[in-house]
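User: Protein folding is very new to me. Would you mind checking the protein record under this note? It all follows right here:
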Amino acid sequence: MALRHFTLQEATNLLPRLGEMIQTLRELRDAAVVKKAQIDQLWRRLEGGEPVLSAIGEEQGTLDAITGRLVSAAQAIEATGCVLRDLDTGLVDFPCRAKGGTTVYLCWRQGEPGIAFWHGTDEGFAGRKPIARLPQDII
């Protein structure tokens, strides 16, 4: 799949939907973690002699369903063309092409009102620069 390149406006337009998608992904991840802990507890109870094998099967089915939804949610984010860097902070990069062919990342973190930063592909969050310093040849 070819790398999608965003304009600042395209990336900005995606933010509301992307924020919802990230929140959904977090909720599914958290639900999977809780369900896995519940299953682990049931296994310990089974090892202790309790008859909980059918409960383990039921809970595993629930975890499998959550995992399927989790994978779908992650694929939906990936399909937008942006790069989710950190789920906990909601850190997202949007590839953006300069006229000379160079790629930079428009950088947004959930909770920020808009895309206010960018950085080079060899820089990370620490290398973020104000969008006002975005080279003029960026489309």
Residues 83-133 form one domain. The radius of gyration is 20 Å. The CA atoms of residues 35 and 62 lie 8 Å apart.
